[in-house]
Amino acid sequence: MNSLANVPYQEPCFQTWADKHALWSAGGVRIDTDIHSGFVRVAKALSKLEKPNKRNKCYNDFLWAMENGAVPGGRILSNAGGEKHKTAVSLINCVASGTIE
Questions:
Q1: CA dist., res. 42 & res. 60, Å (int)
Q2: Is 44 exposed, middle or buried (0-12, 13-18, 19+ CB in 10 A)?
Q3: Among 7, 39, 40, 55, which one is least packed by beta carbons within 10 Å?
Q4: Which DSSP symbol is given to 24?
């Protein structure tokens, strides 16, 4: 895959993906071979949360959306489906605590 929503990837996209969002094993081996394989990992992880009879459709919908420009937050990209390679994962991208007056 060379583009996202018909816009060619720019070179910094690949470096950012590798540095911040690709899944790596605890031993330092890169699990995601490219951006598409990361999207597949995320789509599989997110679709597992759906009812069994809807999982395949949701997987296809999630994957299509990501390949066509709907890119989730960084924590989701880097952690969804990474449970067996990381000791603790969170899909929460931002946290606010306390009351803002």
A1: 11
A2: middle
A3: 7
A4: B
Comparing CA positions, the residue from 35, 40, 37, 39 lying closest to residue 17 is: 35
Give residues with Cβ within 8 angstroms of 30, minimum separation 6: 18, 22, 23, 24
Answer whether 32's CB lies under 8 Å from 38's CB: yes
Tell me phi and psi for residue 3, to 5 degrees.
-145, 165
Cross-strand bridge partners of residue 3: 8
Instruction: Work out whether the CA dihedral 56, 57, 61, 64 comes out positive or negative.
Output: positive
Q: Is the pLDDT of residue 4 over 90?
A: no
pTM (predicted TM-score): 0.77
- Cα 29 to chain centroid distance, Å, stands at 17
Provide φ and ψ at 75, rounded to 5°: -65, -40
